[in-house]
Amino acid sequence: MHGKKEQEHVKKGPWKTEEDDVLLHHVKTYGPRDWSSIRSKGLLQRTGKSCRLRWVNKLRPNLKNGCKFAIEEERIVIELQEQFGNKWAKIASYLPGRTDNDVKNFWSSRQKRLARLLKTSSSTSTSKSHKNKAKVSSHVPTLEVPCKFSSSSEGETSSKPNSCSLPCIEKSAEVIKMVPLQDLITSEKSSINANYVEQDLTHFDQSYKSTKHIAFPQIPELQTDLTFPMERVDEQNIFDVFDPLYSSEFGMVPFFESSGGCRIGNMDTNDDFSTNIDSFFDDFPEDMFDHIDPPANPSNL
DNA sequence: AACGCAGCCAACCGCGAATTT
DNA sequence: AAAATTCGCGGTTGGCTGCGT
User: Is the CB of A98 under 7 A from strand B?
Assistant: First the structure.
C-alpha cells in the first residue's frame, strides 16, 4: 500500500533548479517530447504534463519571461482575441516569446481590471449626475477610424496615425472605436466614464456587428511589418532556435525590442540560467540535437 | 508599521484531440 | 477498428508582491 503510494507519488508545486536541470537535460537529449518518460524513468516525480508545461512556459528558449506586454503586443492580443476568441495558443503564436499562458494571464488581468472599472463606474454613476458623465466623456478622446485589416498587407500600410493595420486579419471595412486603455486606467482613481467602460466591454458582446468597441492603447501607429503568424518557438521549430545563427536572435526579439526592451530567456526562474543566455547555451554541447529526429517534412506528410 | 486590495504569474486540473499500441 | 496512452489547450486557483490607506 505504501509502496504503491510511493510509486504513485507525484511532486507538485514550484520547480526547483535541480528539477529544471533534469528537465533541460532530457530535452537536450531527446528533444521536447516523451514527457511521460521523464517520470517513468524515475528522473523526476513530475507528471509528463507538468514537465511539458514547465518547458513550454519557462525553460523554452526565446521566452520573454517577466516582461510586461508591450503596447504593440496588447494591441495584437486584443485584435486577435476579437477574431479568434479565447484561442490563446493561437494568439500566442503571433507573439514571439509569449506563451499561451502569458496571453491568457494578460487577458484575464485585463478583464478583471475592466470589470472592476465597470463596477466602480456604475457605482459612481449612480451617485453622480448625467451632467458629470457627459463632462468626463468629453475629455476622453475617441478615435473612430476605418480599419484596414487585410490579408494583403502590401500597400495597405496606413499613412494615418491611429489607424490600425494588421496583416492577415480578415476584416471588412468595419469601424473600430478605439478607446485608450491608459485613459481608462488612469481615470480610475478620479472619475470613471461609464460610457467608455461600457463601450469597451461591449466588444465581447457578439451582437455588436457594425461597430466594434475595443479598448486600445492609444499609440500613433503599429510600426511593424509582421508576417503572421510568427513561427512558434516550440516543438515545431526548436531546431531553428538552436541553429548556429541563434546567437543573433537571442539578445532581443527584433520586433518588440524597441518597445519592450526585454531580454529573453528564463532570467528570473533560477540563478543557474539567469546570468545570460549565452551561459545558458554554454551548457549544451555543439551536437546537442544530433540525437533528435528532425521535424517531419511537411511534404512527406 | 500594519493591513487590505489588486495585479501578476506559475502551476494545476479537466477535457478533448491526437497518436500509439 | 478499438482501446490505451500521450499531448495540448483553456479555465482556474493560490501564492507572492507592490501599493495605497
Answer: no
| pLDDT tens per residue, range A37-68 | 898 888 888 999 999 999 999 998 888 887 88
Contact A241, A233 (CB under 8 A): yes
Q: What is the mean pLDDT of residues A118-127?
A: 59
* Nearby residues of A108 by Cβ (< 8 Å), 6 or more positions away: none
**What's the structural domain count of chain A?**
2
Nucleotide nearest A66 (Cα, C1'): B9
- Spatial separation of the C-alpha atoms in residues A237 and A119, rounded to whole Å: 44
**CA nearest neighbour of A255 among A56, A60, A71, A80:** A71
Domain with A41, as residue range(s), is 1-59+265-295
A77 and A151 in a common domain: yes
Q: Which of residues 139-168 of A touch strand C (CB under 7 A)?
A: none
A194 and A87 in one domain?
yes
CATH number at residue A5: 1.10.10.60
CA–CA separation, A138 and A135 (whole Å): 5
Q: Which three cell numbers stand for residue A50?
A: 507538468
Residues A97 and A204 in one domain: yes
Nucleotide nearest to A90 (CA to C1'): C9
Asked if A102 and A74 count as a contact pair (C-beta separation under 8 A), the reply is no
Q: Measure the CA–CA gap between A247 and A298, rounded to whole angstroms.
A: 27
> Which three three-digit cell numbers place residue A43?
528522473
